[in-house]
Automatic annotation (TrEMBL):
<protein>
    <submittedName>
        <fullName>M20/M25/M40 family metallo-hydrolase</fullName>
    </submittedName>
</protein>
<feature type="domain" description="Peptidase M20 dimerisation">
    <location>
        <begin position="11"/>
        <end position="97"/>
    </location>
</feature>
<dbReference type="InterPro" id="IPR011650">
    <property type="entry name" value="Peptidase_M20_dimer"/>
</dbReference>
<dbReference type="GO" id="GO:0046872">
    <property type="term" value="F:metal ion binding"/>
</dbReference>
<keyword id="KW-0378">Hydrolase</keyword>
<dbReference type="GO" id="GO:0016787">
    <property type="term" value="F:hydrolase activity"/>
</dbReference>
<dbReference type="InterPro" id="IPR050072">
    <property type="entry name" value="Peptidase_M20A"/>
</dbReference>
<dbReference type="InterPro" id="IPR036264">
    <property type="entry name" value="Bact_exopeptidase_dim_dom"/>
</dbReference>
<keyword id="KW-0479">Metal-binding</keyword>
<dbReference type="Pfam" id="PF07687">
    <property type="entry name" value="M20_dimer"/>
</dbReference>
Amino acid sequence: MRARTYRAALKGKTALQKAVTAIGELEVLNSTLITRPSSKGLPPPHLTIAVMNSGKAANVYPSEATFWFDRRLVPGENHDEALKEITDVLDALKKEDDSFDYQLTVTSRRPLLDIPKDDPFIQLVAKSYKEVMGKDVEMVAEPWGSDAAWIRKVTHMPIPNFGAANGENEMGKANEKISTQKYLDFIKVYMMTVVNALS
């Protein structure tokens, strides 16, 4: 969001105020997104405003405001359609107020990692897990990203997120951890997967 720089005593909407307005409208969009049905046990699509910066000093009219958001896709959605929903909201604000301006930069277009449970490699991994651990592996869908999605997009290889961490309880946090026993168990599972793949 941009506006001209003035001393704070002058009137008019600052870039920060315009950004707050835009965020409010994007929250309205999000309230629609979260009502959409999803599949595979995933939560619905959603948009989260995650970071915001504006202003240089308390007595200076902020001329720019930057905010970052995260738009989570679910199977059946694509990046272009999701992006258009966002730009439609921002363009509507621009149409109402010609002093409203924005620049949108996409920092990630991570593809969905969507692998059928009956894929032969997934079944091989599940078999190997059961041979080592003595129980069936739990297969789930989760609403987070993975570099495996890029590898799958390029190679078409089925690369599941499969490891010792206990989902959201242990991954992607400041105190990220896994137990030593789980780590050692998964080394055995990975090795059994290699043995089964080569036999």
